[in-house]
Q: What sequence folds into this?
């Protein structure tokens, strides 16, 4: 499951690897990346020691299928190390509790933000991915909600008004995740993308406004920032 980007600093890989920052980012002060303790996962900045775990989680055709071409497939340890060397501060690893019940956390995927340019600089694109063994458990929905709440908060991204996600037409599971996280379907860019297998597909656009996110927050779901 993935948004077509996890926006990547390598040139967009994780919606689709994880967003790169562009010149519009210079308008805003540098932020310390958060550590978010959510109901089903923990989001924290990547560390150099995460490379092997990233490669393990990302190296599966079901992960790459609906990612942009900048997301490698196969995904090697070298790919992970290269990506970590340039990762944006607004790219976070998604960790989940280990299935054996121990306190150890397992890297399950990633989520990130990339600011749009020029007159759209009040919008950031969100992208995410999860390894196949961690899908279908509500982790991606939890990560999207929590990261969005932080991004729109006073300690989050200055000037942010809107989050946007783009999903390839056949990726119904990711579209459902966005809907559960409160994102609104805004339309399709018809025949806008060519998949790795050569198929031409629509790109579906989902958006979440600051006031919509705040309304969701009033319904519950707290975020604990470490």
A:
């Amino acid at each position: 499951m993935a948004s077509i980007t996890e926006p990547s600093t390598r040139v967009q890989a994780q919606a689709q690897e994880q967003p790169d920052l562009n010149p519009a980012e210079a308008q805003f002060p540098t932020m310390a990346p958060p550590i978010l303790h959510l109901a089903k996962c923990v989001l924290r900045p990547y560390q150099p020691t995460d490379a092997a775990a990233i490669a393990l989680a990302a190296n599966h055709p079901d992960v790459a299928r609906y990612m942009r071409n900048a997301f490698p497939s196969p995904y090697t340890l070298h790919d992970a190390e290269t990506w970590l060397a340039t990762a944006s501060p607004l790219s976070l690893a998604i960790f989940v509790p280990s299935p054996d019940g121990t306190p150890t956390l397992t890297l399950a995927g990633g989520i990130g933000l990339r600011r749009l340019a020029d007159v759209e600089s009040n919008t950031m694109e969100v992208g995410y991915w999860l390894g196949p063994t961690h899908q279908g458990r509500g982790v991606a929905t939890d990560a999207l909600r929590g990261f969005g709440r932080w991004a729109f908060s006073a300690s989050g991204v200055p000037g942010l008004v809107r989050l946007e996600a783009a999903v390839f037409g056949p990726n119904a599971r990711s579209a459902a995740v966005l809907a559960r996280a409160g994102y609104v379907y805004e339309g399709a860019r018809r025949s806008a993308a060519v998949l790795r297998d050569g198929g031409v597909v629509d790109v579906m656009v989902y958006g979440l406004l600051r006031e919509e996110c705040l309304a969701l927050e009033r319904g519950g779901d707290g975020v604990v920032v470490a």
User: Anything to note?
Assistant: Residues 23-225 form a domain with the Aminopeptidase fold (CATH 3.40.630.30).
